[in-house]
Amino acid sequence: SNQSPLSERSRVVHMTNLPPPEAWHATWGGSEPVFLIGDVHGCADELEALLALNEDAQVIFVGDLVNKGPKSKECIRLAREVNALGVRGNHEQAVLKALQKGKENRKPSYDWIDDLDAEDIQFLNDLPFTLTLTHYNTIVVHAGLVPGIPLEQQALHDLVSMRHLKQTEAGQWEGFEKPVVPTENMVPWASQWPQGHPHVVFGHDAIRRLQKHPNATGIDTGCLYGGELTALRLPGGHLVSVAAKRQYVVGTAKLLPSGSNSRGYFQTMPRTLVVAATTAAVALAATFLARL
User: Fold this and answer.
1) Nearest to 60 by CA among 43, 90, 40
2) Burial of 66 by CB count in 10 Å (0-12 exposed, 13-18 middle, 19+ buried)?
3) Which residues pair with 218 in a beta bridge?
4) Burial of 32 (C-beta count, 10 Å sphere; 0-12/13-18/19+)
5) Which pTM does this prediction carry?
6) What is the mean pLDDT of the chain?
């Protein structure tokens, strides 16, 4: 069976009333070229432009096809049109939960899901948490994998949410979405993914943008935030990208220069808070100077 025992952390993200995918850890044995696409987040215009650059390779999404951007439904339709494969991200999880909750119990930002048909919903629900491409010795996952833990025992929460690793006192790695305190010493999980294991292709980390580690490649290049939508071709590892038409979301993520593998984790406050904090700091400095 593909279903592994759920850890406590897994239960948090995979609620009991949410139907699990047919396979949590799926495999694909095709030998044709593949076109792996980073986080789309409802940016359908850019997705259409990127798909136009694909030369009949099998399309595979690394998760977060939907949400936050302007045309999530259209993205699902495009994915279905090209018979895409993929894995689920935290935003597919969120959409499936919103569908379970019903209109009266969800945020207005999810109103777009009212336009989904049964096939759209089935497409999302069928997405596994990982997809192993056996011919390419590659695992596709949305967020990350914790080194030292067998695939079937990885916490589902980590698979869709983690970005960082922290070492426990016992010397084992533990996955985190973000530092508990900003100064906490954490490393990008992909920098520690060991040799001798399948290469991992992932998304979910727009802040670090393109990540090229020896044994893992991150292709979330922040299209939603005015960056690019990127695809990775296999075989060959060639990267293809299209520029975002505009910045769809402002003030939630600060992008590092493309290709940066910074160990730091940067997140900006919304601009209103930044302005308020700056104003307060200036006022405090003026008060202090007046007392001199």
Assistant:
1) 40
2) buried
3) 202, 211
4) exposed
5) 0.80
6) 81
SS (H, E, C) the chain: CCCCCCCHHHHHHCCCCCCCCCCCEEEECCCCCEEEECCCCCCHHHHHHHHCCCCCCEEEECCCCCCCCCCHHHHHHHHHHCCCEECCCHHHHHHHHHHHHCHHHCCHHHHHHHHCCHHHHHHHHCCCCEEEEHHHCEEEECCCCCCCCCHHHCCHHHHHHCCEEEECCCCCEEEECCCCCCCCCCEEHHHHCCCCCCEEEECCCCCCCCEEECCEEECCCEHHHCCEEEEEEECCCEEEEEECCCCCCCCCCCCCCCCCCCCCCCCCCCHHHHHHHHHHHHHHHHHHHHHC
Determine if the peptide bond prior to 235 is cis (ω within 30°): yes
- Angle between helix axes 118-125 and 72-81 (nearest 10 degrees) is 80
For residues 231 and 54, is the Cβ–Cβ distance under 8 A? yes
Of the candidates 229, 247, 224, the one whose C-alpha atom is nearest the C-alpha of residue 53 is: 229
Q: At which residue do the structure tokens 């998760």 appear?
A: 63
pLDDT along the chain (292 residues), means of 10: 38 49 90 97 97 96 95 96 96 88 78 87 94 98 95 93 89 82 80 94 94 96 96 96 93 47 32 35 44 45
What is the pLDDT, as a whole number, of residue 32? 96
- pLDDT, one tens digit per residue, over 31-54 is 999 999 999 999 999 999 999 999
Closest CA to 192 of 160, 214, 218, 207: 214
